[in-house]
Write a structure and sequence with these properties.
The chain has one domain: Rossmann fold, CATH 3.40.50.150. Strand 2, helix 3 and strand 3 form a beta-alpha-beta unit. Helix 1 runs parallel beside helix 3. The protein contains 6 helices and 7 strands, in the order H-H-E-E-H-E-E-H-E-H-H-E-E. It has 191 residues and is α/β, with parallel strands linked by helices. The mean pLDDT is 93. It has a 7-stranded mixed sheet, sandwiched between helices.
Length: 191
């Protein structure tokens, strides 16, 4: 899922992560999920780490999927969330078995972004939504974040909202750029 250096980093900082990271934007996530054309009963939080994004959502059954065992332990122990160790490019779920998926502040860490999109398309039922919350590398704060992550050895690859929406369209999603800024949301509805 993540580059090996990124996984090691998140394993090391897992005990501190929730103390230094702001809460996820639950309103932006809920607005993105509202694009689904089916009821959302089962949601995957891909690259969900400590469950920070899952904690901002209410309603569906949520499973956090992450490659960092340290972060998953935080999700399970401190948030009482269901967690599965896994790779975003090879999700351990059946075809069409979930109603929605989120990738919050993590897409840039995925080593094979195209495979992650294809896997989300595979596991989502028709009408399900993939909500990606990311950072725009063309925004001044996005440029600073990208430079910072590269400076500490992360393998981050940031995408613009338009590029991510185009990738979702290529994978068979109906994409929408839900909001823009330093942090942005792109939603793809599974056709």
């Amino acid at each position: 899922m993540y580059g090996l250096g990124d996984v090691r980093f998140f394993d090391r900082i897992a005990p501190l992560y929730d103390r230094v990271m702001p809460p996820a934007d639950g309103e932006a996530l809920a607005a993105g999920l509202d694009h689904a054309t089916r009821p959302i009963d089962r949601l995957l939080d891909v690259g969900g780490g400590s469950g920070r994004a899952a904690a901002a959502l209410t309603g569906p059954e949520i499973t956090v999927v992450d490659a960092s065992l340290g972060m998953l332990a935080r999700a399970r122990e401190h948030r009482d969330l269901s967690g599965v160790a896994g790779d975003a490019g090879r999700l351990p779920f059946r075809d069409g078995s979930v109603d929605a998926a989120t990738v919050v502040d993590a897409f840039h860490h995925l080593s094979d972004q195209a495979a992650a999109i294809e896997e989300a398309a595979r596991v989502l039922a028709p009408g399900g939504a993939l909500v990606v919350r990311e950072f725009d590398p063309t925004h001044p704060l996005g440029r600073a974040l990208a430079a910072s992550e590269h400076a500490i050895g992360m393998e981050s690859r940031f995408r613009t909202p338009a590029d991510l929406a185009a990738d979702l369209a290529e994978a068979g999603f109906d994409p929408r750029i839900a909001d823009r800024g330093f942090a942005y949301t792109v939603v793809g509805v599974r056709e």
